[in-house]
């Protein structure tokens, strides 16, 4: 399986979320959330509308005010960090698209290449 590098785990502070483009031409970022040693990743695409909407109102602003949920600031939706399930807002019953993270022996994180293919511009 081909992998695309995102970052080193230390680039994501504990309790924070950051977005990374898997390829420069990708339309969507991959959100990586770190809580302690646990890392979760999702596509930066709110399921409220078909085609998705980016969730952050500014760069890397993916968490709600108290850092307990991923938030879509365009729709006031909240998502469980562990499952990606919408727990509040207009997309109840839907969930974020989880992305599989691979970590190498020194802490560099990668995602499957198909993630960029799903998000890349069709030309």
TrEMBL record:
Transmembrane segments annotated in the record for this chain: none
Lineage top rank: taxon: Bacteria
Keyword terms of this UniProt record: 2Fe-2S, Iron, Iron-sulfur, Metal-binding
Domain Rieske intervals: 4-109
Record GO terms (molecular function): 2 iron, 2 sulfur cluster binding; metal ion binding
Keyword Iron-sulfur listed: yes
Pfam families referenced in this protein's UniProt entry, alphabetically: Rieske
UniProt protein name: Rieske 2Fe-2S domain-containing protein
Source organism (scientific name): Paracoccus aestuariivivens
């Amino acid at each position: 399986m081909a992998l695309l590098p995102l970052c080193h785990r230390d680039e994501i502070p504990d309790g924070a979320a950051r977005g990374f483009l898997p390829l420069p031409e990708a339309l969507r970022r991959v959100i990586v959330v770190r809580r302690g040693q646990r890392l979760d990743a999702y596509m930066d695409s709110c399921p409220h509308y078909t085609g998705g909407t980016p969730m952050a109102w500014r760069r890397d602003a993916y968490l709600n005010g108290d850092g307990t949920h991923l938030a879509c600031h365009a729709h006031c939706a909240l998502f469980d960090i562990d499952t990606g399930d919408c727990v509040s807002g207009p997309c109840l019953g839907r969930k974020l698209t989880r992305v599989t993270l691979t970590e190498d022996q020194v802490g560099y994180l990668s995602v499957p290449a198909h993630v960029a293919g799903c998000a890349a511009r069709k030309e």
